[in-house]
Amino acid sequence: MRTHLRCATAIALVLTVSAPFVLSNPALAQWAVIDSANLAQNELEAARALEQINNQIQSLQNEATMLQNMARNLASLNVSQLGGMTSDLQQISNLMNQAQGIAFNVQSVQTAFQQRYPQQYGANTTIPQLESDAQTRWQNARDAFQQTMLVQSQIAETVQTDSSKLATLVDASQGAGGNLQVSQATNQLLALSIKQQLQIESLMAAQGRADALNDANNAEAEEEGRAALETFLGTSNAYTPQ
């Protein structure tokens, strides 16, 4: 209580002493007057302006980031193995088209079997004709096995290059920076897988053709033996006593 009373007395004493001085100096009295409402309004407007500037800066930064992402997603992959894959498949296709005797063609197979693989030889079949047909069938089977080995060799050679292609594409996919690069790397990996499947199918077709011709040749040999025996015997007995 005494402390508050002392403070009040001191304040009253200061006001009593300073009042004549302030009244005798009008400029000092004007400087001491502050419009708090106007000051608060100015500070609020300044804060709002600063907030708008910060929002604009953030918006520009977001647009710059978006443009960078678009550029990265649209960047093309600098690695392409499609040319090598196409070349490998073309070489195998050329080997398949070089099939001798009976080609991979429905009409060709039908015509060849009607001529060289008849279901039954007639009674008027000559021995030279049987021999010629047998030689042709043997040659077809031999050519088919040779072609199968050529296709096998070609595929074996591409396995080494496929390993290199696979390593290159995997490295490219791992280092892809955008969606387009990822898609391109994935498409090439899928193309490599499809190419290998096509190689296997070509090999199976060549192998199946060789096996079928060999089996057909063996089956036709039985019919040829029957026809040869019938030709030899003719319509009479093999031996007529005199």
Q: Strands, helices and their partners?
A:
Layout: H1 2-23, H2 26-31, H3 36-74, H4 82-97, H5 106-116, H6 127-174, H7 179-233
Helix pairs in contact: 4-6, 4-7, 6-7
Question: What do these coordinates show?
Answer:
- With 242 residues, the chain is an all-alpha fold.
- The chain has two domains: 2-25 and 40-74; 82-233.
- It has seven helices and no strands.
- It has helices at 2-23, 26-31, 36-74, 82-97, 106-116, 127-174, 179-233.
- Helix 4 (82-97) runs antiparallel to helix 6 and helix 4 (82-97) runs parallel beside helix 7.
- The longest helix has 55 residues, at 179-233.
- The model is unreliable at 1-23 and 27-32 (pLDDT under 50).
Task: Briefly characterize the structure.
The chain has 242 residues and is mainly alpha-helical. It has 7 helices and no strands.
Structural descriptors:
about 240 residues; mainly alpha; 2 domains; about 80% helix; about 0% strand; disordered N terminus
Shape: rod-shaped
Tally the helices: what do you get? 7
Uncertain regions spanning at least 5 consecutive residues: 1-23, 27-32
**Helix and strand succession?**
HHHHHHH
Main beta sheet = none
Percent of sequence in beta strands = under 5%
Mean pLDDT: 75
**Radius of gyration over all CA atoms, rounded:** 50 Å
The number of distinct structural domains comes to: 2
